[in-house]
Amino acid sequence: MSVRDGAATVATNAGGGGGGGGWSNDPDDRMYLLQIYPRLAAQSSTCCNLRVQKNATTASVITDAAAALGLDPGRLYVLAEVKESGGEEWILEAGDLPVQRVLLWPRKAQEQHPQSFGFYFLLQERNHDGSIHYVHLPPLSKEQEVQRLAARGFLPPPQDDFADLCNLPVLSEDSILNNLRTRFYKKKIYTYAGSILVAINPFKFLPIYNPKYVKMYEKHQLGKLEPHIFAIADVAYYAMLRKRVNQCIVISGESGSGKTQSTNFLIHCLTALSQKGYASGVERTILGAGPVLEAFGNAKTAHNNNSSRFGKFIQVNYLESGVVRG
């Protein structure tokens, strides 16, 4: 046994077989590195590096690790496999094979697995009644843990924004509003919350409503492309044709949030789908009725100079072929 840089290193043939402390051409005799960290009442940062064969059992590895670390052989110890990425800490049975566990880890952690990689073994003390004597380490917040794992390459890098609020890692009022704000500054005014579309009025025209966008979202499952009101119209239209059941789209929001404009975009997309991209007189008739109604029922509010003061119900009827009837 030799001690270098605070790490105890021992070469062993635990589990039987030859091979010494080096590498062998025979795959069955290959030596694997196990890095074991003691988590005992007497805290120590010493890491025990063992080279063992593939069939080395947990019992033999514990014996060799205890000897290498100079621990009291009269006490009982257990070996725990830790996978920080999943929040797992698994106590290995005496007959388990630690090397087999290592071979299931990410390739990055197989050859060398220091604690900083998030995949490692802990040596813990077992009480005489069989229970585990845990020594708690300083806890990290969930955000800090995610940052550590992402920095080590075990988790994908954090996203700037989420197209669906259901995918937010932390769901709170602040995280929802921050996500919507981030997307708004990127001129992404639409965001999903499952099958619900959240729209933020940009108070200016965006070039995302021309016929090519109708074609782009046609026959696409909700969520496959960036959120858009045309996606809602497309899903409703093809669900009606497929299921032969009436579909309903509800638009709600505060004064000035863009309900009237959203209605116009929906009708534009629905009639374009039924006419296969060609403008129709039906669309002009439906959209032309809006200003007439609003001339009698609009009023000025604190947020909107021309706010609709009445509810609107628009029903578009289709033939079985999917063409607008009226």
UniProtKB/TrEMBL annotation:
The keyword tRNA processing does not apply. Coiled coil: none annotated. It holds the Pfam family Myosin_head. The keyword Nucleotide-binding applies. It comes from the Eukaryota. Its main location: cytoplasm. InterPro entries: Kinesin_motor_dom_sf, Myo9, Myosin_head_motor_dom-like, P-loop_NTPase, RA_dom, Ubiquitin-like_domsf. PROSITE patterns: MYOSIN_MOTOR, RA. ATP binds at residues 253-260. Gene3D superfamilies: Kinesin motor domain (3.40.850.10). Belongs to the TRAFAC class myosin-kinesin ATPase superfamily. Myosin family. Residues 14-23 have a biased composition (Gly residues). Residues 160-326 form the Myosin motor domain. It comes from Goodea atripinnis. This is Unconventional myosin-IXb. Residues 1-23 are annotated as: Disordered. It is found in: Cytoplasm. Residues 30-128 form the Ras-associating domain. Keywords: Actin-binding, ATP-binding, Coiled coil, Cytoplasm, Motor protein, Myosin, Nucleotide-binding.
